[in-house]
Amino acid sequence: KVVTGYALPSTGYEVEPGRVVELKGRDTPLGVMTGQGVLAVVQLQLEGKRPLHAADFLRGHPDLLRALLPS
């Protein structure tokens, strides 16, 4: 689940909604495309686990980048 995030315009991203993208030059390296832009994910939490900053989460789950999330 996304614990903390914020909206960004989709400028520069040409991928379908639900695709996980790498954000460069932001306070978080992780974003998810939406129909209106990008959801920048700052903190996320797996079920039964503690919340983690997106950068820390990606160190353990690098395969999440470029994944297509189910709707």
At a glance:
This protein is mainly beta and 71 residues long. The protein is built from one helix and five strands.
Write a structural description.
About 15% of the residues are buried. It is globular, with a radius of gyration of 11 Å. It contains one helix and five strands; from the N terminus they run E-E-E-E-E-H. Strands 1, 2, 3, 4 and 5 form a five-stranded antiparallel sheet that branches. The longest helix has 7 residues, at about 55-60. By secondary structure, it is mainly beta.
Q: Topology as H/E string?
A: EEEEEH
How would you sum up the global shape?
A: globular
Radius of gyration: 11 Å
- Detail the poorly predicted runs: none
State the secondary-structure class. Answer: mainly beta
Tell me how many strands there are. 5
Largest sheet: 5 strands, antiparallel
User: Roughly what percent helix?
Assistant: under 10%
Q: Count of helices?
A: 1
Strand content: 25-35%
End-to-end gap: 14 Å
User: Average pLDDT value?
Assistant: 92
